[in-house]
Design brief:
Elements (H helix, E strand, L loop, with lengths): L1 H10 L9 E4 L1 E3 L5 E4 L2 E2 L7 E9 L8 H7 L10 H4 L4 H5 L2 H12 L3 E7 L1 H14 L10 H12 L3 H10 L10 H15 L5 H14 L15 E3 L3 H4 L1 H5 L4 E5 L2 H7 L5 E2 L2 E2 L3 E4 L5 H22 L2 H9 L3 H20 L4 E4 L2 H12 L12
Parallel strand pairs: 1-8, 6-12, 8-11
Antiparallel strand pairs: 1-5, 2-5, 3-4, 3-7, 5-6, 9-10
């Protein structure tokens, strides 16, 4: 585990990973298992899975949340703070919530931070195609890994139904050796029929990739799996921050599904077993409740920026009302402050477009023309 931790920190240029903090967690859009059935995916359009919440520095705190709860004016019979008591509806309606702004401001004013893991479930289910080829016959294309994965995702989702129904016959993501060439040729033809969504240069690169793939006799990341099971469970995503921030404490909601994922873990760092996580009843832990609000909102947000094009987001952002503008500004402040504490607090496994859309909508970073590839 030490080597894995060190490699992740080094490759991603992460800083301040040895700090002592207390992390609180909740999740949203956990579909438990993602697989291919007779007529498509078992979940037709899964939202982005988000795991995360709030944190504070140190292993103890003396923060008083009484004023926050008073300002939120929740109904007297409300047992615990949840997103549904703060705001309801789609992302744009959530962004208009005055109560959401109160929470964002309170977090910023009290030096609390946010952390999250954001997963595009379908994108994650496709990237092993690219990694299988880059690791074997196309290592010279490794610098373009993100571009290839994003463009493959964009092309394959142009006719998702046809793609899913066909790869099911091959047992994807468990391709038998005798079907590798047939699968590769079919995939090449599928991409050729839908590649017009890419610029000429990016289409050239993806075609070059598939020219390598059709001559390959092994697909190392698409063998030894279960037929048609894309994601067995989400357990691996829960342990990342536990071992990366090994000097911190990690507090999860006391739910059977979470306990089953983490209860039997045996994580070793520097020869010692990690015992830096525990479970608490959310009714007794206000920061787990706040994590429900933050993660629920981020789940809607990340799904929103995935489902809308960059040009559509420009249009939407230009028409935000004052409440939405204020809440977006407060969220940006919270994320920027958290990133300054440590960039290891955020992890996104999403397409290039989603990275670009997030950079624009939240951080005001205007997208550069990424259609041209410098070779």
């Amino acid at each position: 585990m030490d080597e894995l931790r060190n490699d992740i920190i080094l490759v991603n240029n992460l800083y301040n990973m040895d700090i002592e903090c207390t992390f609180y967690y909740d999740e949203t859009n956990n579909i438990r298992k993602f697989h291919i059935i007779e007529d498509g995916f078992n979940v037709v359009d899964p939202g982005n899975f988000v795991l995360g919440g709030v944190l504070h520095t140190g292993l103890k705190h003396n923060l008083n949340t009484d004023n926050l709860l008073k300002d939120l004016k929740l109904q007297r019979n409300t047992k615990e703070l949840k997103l549904k008591y703060v705001a309801k509806g789609d992302f744009e309606r959530l962004l208009s919530s005055e109560k959401l702004g109160i929470i964002f401001k309170w977090l910023n004013d009290n030096n609390l931070y946010a952390h999250y893991f954001n997963l595009n479930i379908i994108y994650w289910s496709l990237v092993d195609i690219v990694d299988s080829v880059l690791s074997e016959t196309a290592q010279e294309l490794i610098p373009y890994s993100m571009i290839l994965k994003s463009d493959l995702y964009k092309v394959l989702t142009q006719d998702r139904d046809l793609f899913v129904l066909t790869v099911r016959k091959y047992g994807y993501p468990n391709i038998k050796n005798e079907y590798i060439h047939e699968f590769s040729v079919w995939l090449l033809n599928f991409v050729h029929d839908h590649i017009n969504v890419l610029s000429n240069e990016r289409a050239f690169l993806l075609n070059l990739f598939f020219q390598k793939m059709v001559h390959q006799t092994v697909l190392p990341f698409l063998t030894g799996e279960e037929d048609n099971v894309l994601i067995k469970n989400f357990s691996s995503f829960y342990i990342r921050t536990i071992y990366l921030f090994n000097n911190s404490s990690h507090i999860f909601d006391k739910e059977d599904s979470v306990i089953s994922k983490l209860g039997g873990l045996n994580l070793m760092i520097q020869g010692k077993q990690l015992n830096n996580f525990r479970f608490e009843n959310s009714e007794n832990e206000i920061f787990v409740q706040l994590s429900d609000v933050i993660v629920g909102f981020l789940g809607k947000y990340f799904t929103f920026i995935r489902q809308n094009s960059y040009s559509k987001l420009v249009q939407i952002k230009s028409s935000l009302n004052p409440h939405q503008i204020n809440n977006l500004s407060l969220l940006k402040q919270l994320i920027d402050r958290s990133d300054n504490l440590s960039n290891g607090l955020f992890n996104m496994i999403v397409s290039e477009d989603e990275h670009q859309n997030n950079a624009y909508f939240l951080h005001n970073v205007v997208a550069q023309n990424s259609d041209r590839i410098i070779r």
